[in-house]
Write a structure and sequence with these properties.
This protein has 4 helices and 6 strands. The protein is of the alpha+beta class. A hairpin with a 5-residue loop joins strand 5 and strand 6. It is globular.
Length: about 140
C-alpha cells in the first residue's frame, strides 16, 4: 500500500511539474490581418467618425490607465446612430433622460460616460453622438 501511495505521489509531482513547465510561455506574435465579418451597425460608427474627422470634432480623454480619442458627430449621422440604438438601448436598459436630453448608449452606463459610445437628443432635432476609440499610449506621442 505504501509503495502504491509513493508511486502516485511521484506521478502527481511529475504531472504537476509538466503542467507548470510551460507557464509564462507565449507563442510568437501572429501578424496575419484579422478577418472581419459583416456588421450592419458599423456604418453608424463610420459615418459618425467621418463627420467628426472632417470638421475636427475630436479630442483626448483619459483616466489613470486609458487614453482615448472621442469623436463627436451631430446632425444626420448622429440622428441615424441615435435611432439605430433604439432596440439595443431598450434591451440593455441604456436609455436615460438627463439634463433635458435623452441619452442612448451601446452599453449600460455603470459610473460615467468614459469609454461608452453614446448618442443624445433634446427631442427638438438636436442630435449628438460620441464614439470612443481606445488609442493607448501612442495618443500622447510616447
Amino acid at each position: 500500500m505504501r509503495r502504491t501511495v509513493a508511486v502516485i505521489a511521484i506521478l502527481a509531482g511529475l504531472t504537476s511539474a509538466c503542467a507548470h513547465e510551460n507557464e509564462g510561455y507565449l507563442p510568437p506574435p501572429n501578424f496575419r490581418p484579422i478577418e472581419t465579418q459583416p456588421a450592419p451597425n458599423a456604418r453608424f460608427y463610420a459615418d459618425c467618425i467621418a463627420q467628426a474627422a472632417e470638421v475636427g470634432a475630436y479630442g483626448r480623454a483619459s483616466d489613470a490607465d486609458t487614453r482615448m480619442v472621442l469623436f463627436t458627430c451631430t446632425g444626420a449621422p448622429a440622428r441615424a446612430f441615435y435611432e439605430g440604438l433604439a432596440a439595443r438601448s431598450a434591451a440593455v436598459g441604456s436609455e436615460v433622460p438627463t439634463n433635458g436630453r435623452t441619452i442612448r448608449s451601446t452599453n449600460r452606463v455603470r459610473q460615467n460616460l468614459f469609454g461608452v459610445d453614446w448618442c443624445s437628443t433634446d427631442g427638438a432635432g438636436d442630435y449628438r453622438c460620441v464614439v470612443s476609440l481606445n488609442a493607448g499610449d501612442f495618443l500622447d506621442g510616447e
